[in-house]
Amino acid sequence: MQISTGSSELRDITKMERIGVHSHIHGLGLDERLEPRGNAEGMVGQAKARKAAGMILKMVQEGRIAGRAMLFAGPPSTGKTAIALGMAQTLGSDVPFTMIAASEVFSLSMSKTEALTQAFRRSIGIRIKEETEIVEGEVVEIQIDRSATGATKTGKLTIKTTDMETIYDLGNKMIDALSKEKVLAGDVITIDKSSGKITKVGRSFARSRDYDAMGADTRFVACPEGEIQKRKEVVHTVSLHEIDVINSRTQGFLALFAGDTGEIKPELRQQIDVKVAEWREEGKAEVVPGVLFIDEVHMLDIECFSFLNRALENELAPLVIMASNRGMARIRGTTIRSPHGLPVDLLDRVLIVSTKPYTEDDMRQIIEIRCREEDVKLTPEAATVLTSMAVSTTLRYALNLISCAQVLARKRKVESVDVEDLRRVYIYFQDEKRSVQWLKEQQGSLVFEEMRPENSELMDTR
Ligand SMILES: Nc1ncnc2c1ncn2[C@@H]1O[C@H](COP(=O)(O)OP(=O)(O)O)[C@@H](O)[C@H]1O
Ligand SMILES: [Mg+2]
Hints:
The chain has helices spanning about 10-15, 45-60, 80-90, 105, 110-120, 170-180, 240-245, 255-260, 265-280, 300-310, 345, 360-375, 380-390, 395-410, 420-430, 430-440; strands at about 40, 45, 70-75, 95-100, 125-145, 155-160, 165-170, 185-190, 200-205, 220, 230-240, 285-290, 290-295, 320-325, 330, 335-340, 350-355, 375-380, 415. It starts with 7 loop residues before the first helix and ends in a 21-residue tail after the last helix. It is globular and about 85 Å long. With about 450 residues, it is α/β, with parallel strands linked by helices. It has 16 helices and 19 strands. Strands 5, 6, 7, 8, 9, 10, 11 and 12 form an eight-stranded mixed sheet that branches. Strands 4-13-14-3-17 form a five-stranded parallel sheet, sandwiched between helices. Strands 1-2 form a two-stranded antiparallel sheet. The longest helix has 17 residues, at about 395-410. It binds adenosine-5'-diphosphate and magnesium ion. Magnesium ion (MG) binds near residues 81 and 323.
């Protein structure tokens, strides 16, 4: 069976940037010796956990670790998700990093195990070496003949190297591509023969005096030597999941854009695994184990956990990172209570890293970083007040107030957010503690649900 890995443009589009509450995180902020720097790459404090994360990453990058798992355990808003994203940023674009929230597994229109399998296969990269044939040379002449109606075009492209000159016939598609790239005589171009993609390399030195045909940023290059048609080796990385989807007959590659991939047949996966093994033997492909991050992992149920146990033993397993803010909690789908809401046999496999509540100084610095990220100015007094709010409520609540307070400051037509704005948003928006207090005061007028008293599962913040 023919297994395709898709075209390179397709692969570029399916990788997306994440923005939002963690957009200030650009890495783990470690130096070469893996020592955490005080305030670097958007990261503050939480030194031990960052260092542990850095060590694990080092092993991933050296390809020494696969089929392992680690767990970030700590109270809410202590940077578990932030550190995982920092790890993703450090990995580089070549190593796949997949992030899912455990509850996603239940909401997709597929079985839980299929959703997890897809997440696993998304996190395994296959680095493929391919030879493609390209045409490279300096354009001597482009000649285009239009039919009387202008609907069809034919043409000829004359292209040369220092050693030879060839004329190619052009079809409609190539003519459009050439005019889109604004290719002129004197440009040095490459054409990928399989995809027809045209790349302008620069302008030939020989034409450096045609001042009418260039802008300020024109790059001059020498006219290429040797054959016009060359073979070139290109290396790219695709995930196993992408290969699955591209080759699944019912879905096709368009499903990658829609994100709606449906279930993939196990037989297809088997064929692909066999093919990948063949490629590895032939030296055509390398496996790049990536990272799968499962946030709020206590939301998985016992069936998922047993699947994880099994999947981690697979030869093609990524590093699995989990995060949980539970202390002793019931394992979903059972009546058993267990640390972090994870069954003990899974806990036994994982390296546990705990995250601690932040100090006041750390919080002040994180607030500062977020203000810079959101382009908000605080007066020094406001910064102090917001920090003390973070201490008495939570860091996340304080970070949420930044943009709200800015709306008020703008309404007052002032540059910087002041204490007065913070005080007002503090009244408008309640934090968790005040909301609970309010609920208690409202006993009777709101609708309450009866429940057995067993709700001390969340890790204590103090
Ligand atoms: N060490 C840190 N440095 C900078 N920002 C942080 C750090 N830890 C947490 N944050 C920010 O604080 C907020 C809450 O952290 P988050 O990682 O979501 O907490 P958790 O996942 O542990 O509940 C996020 O906006 C996050 O980016
Ligand atoms: Mg989180």
